[in-house]
Amino acid sequence: MKNYTITVNGNVYDVTVEEGGAGAAAAPKAAAPKAAAPKAAAPKAAAPAGGAGAVKINAPMPGKILSVKASAGQAVKKGDVIMVLEAMKMENEIVAPQDGTVAGINVAAGDSVEAGAVLASLN
To answer: Which end of the chain, N or C, is surrounded by fewer C-beta atoms within 10 Å?
Structure first.
């Protein structure tokens, strides 16, 4: 079992999560709102082989990356296809939102992504 403290809309909850999926999850216990400053969010894991460009290209929906058409360092024009994302059995082209140079690609073909995940970045 793991214990977490979660803040949602300013309300603090202490949550216990059971691992293994054999039993039902414990109900959250509402804790009194803490007067101290909110805890800093845990740092996100570094993106694999991706650079940090000024313009982020995010996944518009959850899905699976079918192919990556661009590579880091490649110059792209607005509307150029960067990669193809499959969602709900449809292929969606992820395109460059503006002219620039690909700073990094954060995913590979076959990766599953969540909505809002940073797929690539441009300079």
So the answer is: N
CA distance 70 to 50: 13
Q: How far apart are CA 93 and CA 52, in angstroms?
A: 22
| Predicted confidence (pLDDT) per residue in 27-68, tens digit | 555 555 554 444 444 433 333 444 577 899 999 999 999 999
- Burial class of 110 by CB neighbour count within 10 A (0 to 12, 13 to 18, 19+): exposed
Residue 67: φ, ψ to 5°: -155, 155
The H or E element containing residue 1 is none
pTM greater than 0.85:
no
